[in-house]
Design goal:
CATH topology of the largest domain: Rossmann fold
GO molecular function, one term: DNA binding
Number of strands: 12
Keywords: DNA-binding, Transcription, Transcription regulation
Helix content: 40-55%
InterPro entries: HTH_LacI, LacI/GalR-like_sensor, Lambda_DNA-bd_dom_sf, Peripla_BP_I
Organism: Enterocloster hominis (ex Hitch et al. 2024)
Radius of gyration: 24 Å
Protein name: LacI family DNA-binding transcriptional regulator
């Protein structure tokens, strides 16, 4: 059985002290280029693997980063996980739980950093994470009062993305537009405090269009409950009153709405126009192809991964919102 290679073995082969080996591996202090190259050469030759568990005991932090969401945003989390792995971190994916014990468990997990893509928690709960020394990036989708300034905001510009979609549909002549909130999302209706609801109501009002609260699908506990809202809207109004367009909060839900509309023997886009958000791969394999907002997922994931890495290493990146780009396809 091969004997485990230690940091001291690397130091001896490279002709440096064990401390210098640590500086190079953790990129935590200045080391001359000559010594750095000697250490890296020794690491490769000896096939040395640092003991991440020993490091976590020293730093009271693991080499894991928590990704928390209300639903599985597969393409985003795949990109994030790959980027973080290249930086030496493993990703742990969690579905958000509404109980306060969920926040406590996250804190107990000693994560190097957390990416929170959920609007389920209060400012006090989020603040408690950073107050316990864990860096947090928030994918912000609603207003918070009293949010700790140490929490970094990285998110799509949700308000302006929804506004852009609605103004496009209104320009196309639509005045009866329904909105489908995200799955398992804290939604209180068209008069809610989240950015999607605000953009929906304020954009309609700015265009002198009456806001019908029935047109905001907010039963987000399951896909079935959201689609029940869609069916209710379409069957509760006659042809001259029901919506002529649906805006879905993401492309996956938009595709589900398209299937639902077809089951009602309505045509897309002749009877109903449909718009999604995200520009994920499946948006181009629907029939017709889906009009959507391109959120630039690869670039967004890369910048979030960089920010999480910086925060895990004691730096504080700036807040940033990412403006989407409307991609017009056959569904409108």
């Amino acid at each position: 059985m091969r004997q485990k290679v230690t940091r001291n073995d690397v130091a001896k082969l490279a002709g440096v002290s064990p401390a210098v080996v640590s500086y190079v591996i953790n990129d935590s202090n200045y080391v001359s280029q000559e010594k750095r190259e000697a250490v890296l050469k020794a690491v490769k030759e000896l096939e040395y693997t640092p003991n991440v568990f020993a490091k976590s005991l020293r730093t009271n932090r693991s080499n894991q980063i928590a990704l928390v969401g209300d639903t599985l945003q597969a393409e985003l989390y795949e990109e994030l996980s790959a980027q973080l792995f290249q930086k030496g971190y493993f990703s742990c994916l969690f579905y958000s739980q509404k109980e306060d014990t969920f926040i406590n468990r996250l804190i107990e997990g000693r994560f190097a950093a957390i990416f929170m893509a959920s609007n389920a928690f209060t400012a006090e709960q989020l603040n408690r994470i950073v107050q316990n020394g864990i860096p947090l990036i928030l994918y912000q989708s609603r207003e918070y009062i009293g949010l700790d300034p140490r929490i970094v905001i990285r998110a799509p510009d949700i308000y302006n993305d929804v506004k852009q979609i609605l103004n496009y549909l209104i320009m196309k002549g639509h005045t009866r537009i329904a909105f489908v909130a995200p799955l398992k999302y804290r939604a209180t209706g068209a008069d809610g405090d989240d950015f999607r609801a605000r953009a929906y109501s304020e954009t309609l009002q700015a265009n002198h269009i009456e806001v019908n609260p029935d047109f905001f699908c907010r039963h987000t506990q399951s896909e079935a409950s959201l689609l029940e809202d869609v069916v209710y809207i379409m069957t509760s109004y006659n042809a001259s009153q029901r919506p002529t367009a649906f805006v879905a909060s993401d492309d996956h839900m938009a595709a589900q709405v398209m299937q639902c509309i077809r089951k009602l023997n309505l045509r897309i886009p002749d009877d109903i126009a449909i718009v999604g958000s995200g520009n994920i791969a499946s948006s181009q394999i629907t029939t017709p192809e889906l009009t959507t907002i391109d959120s630039g997922i690869p670039d967004f994931a890369s910048e979030v991964a960089d920010a999480l890495f910086c925060m895990a290493n004691g730096e504080t990146p700036d807040d940033r919102l990412y403006k989407g780009r409307l991609i017009i396809r056959g569904s409108t």
